[in-house]
Amino acid sequence: MECPHCHARNPDDARFCNNCGQKLDAAPPSAVPAPAATFSPTRTAPPVPAALAEKLLAARSARAMEGERRVVTMLFCDVKGSTAAAGQLDPEEWTDIMNGAFEQMIRPVYQFEGTVARLMGDALLAFFGAPLAHEDDPERAVRAGLAIVEAMRPYGQIVRRDWGLDVDVRVGINTGLVVVGAVGSDLR
């Protein structure tokens, strides 16, 4: 069976992708995410919006920034208490909860034209200023961080109601001078 999200090949009886961990019976995410109020924990994180993907691909294919000194703002966000909470649930249920949390964390990053650099367990790392640069990248990162915190409030209420767990996030932001190198070729 081919994963509709990452297109990796999986055994026919697999319920989750061996490559990306997404449910195999779920349809691929739509290009237009639903509002947070109608969140479903089985949905996956939103894909890169088409307009932003085009800008990112153009910036990366031009390779104009390799070796360039830039001011980059990094946003790091993680789910508070996730290790203890994960131990209380079935791994598939925890995957559903984390997919929902990532949806709430990723959407604001894309809204403010940041780049999701990495998803790590219960955390997200995003860049503002590379590969796309704006004069107000630090402000965009702060706005994205505030939007993440705001989006997690209704989602946390859903998790509390359905699983009896408290889910919240921490956001850290740092701006500094970097020398930009190849940060990957994957838009996920």
Could you characterize the architecture of this molecule?
The chain has 188 residues and is α+β, with helices and mostly antiparallel strands. It has four helices and four strands, in the order αβααββαβ. It has helices at residues 50-62, 82-86, 91-111, 137-163, and strands spanning 69-80, 115-120, 123-128, 168-179. It has a four-stranded antiparallel beta sheet, covered by helices on one side. A hairpin with a 2-residue loop joins strand 2 (115-120) and strand 3. It is globular. Mean pLDDT is 79; it is low at 26-43.
What are the main properties of this structure?
4 helices, alpha+beta, 188 residues
- Taking the alpha carbons of the first and last residues, their distance comes to 21 Å
Give me the count of strands.
4
Largest sheet: 4 strands, antiparallel
Q: Which series of helices and strands comes N to C?
A: HEHHEEHE
Low-confidence stretches: 26-43
Give helix % range: 25-40%
Please provide a brief summary of the model.
With 188 residues, the chain is α+β, with helices and mostly antiparallel strands. The chain has four helices and four strands.
Draw up the topology in text.
Blueprint: H1 50-62, E1 69-80, H2 82-86, H3 91-111, E2 115-120, E3 123-128, H4 137-163, E4 168-179
Antiparallel strand pairs: 1-3, 1-4, 2-3
Helix pairs in contact: 3-4
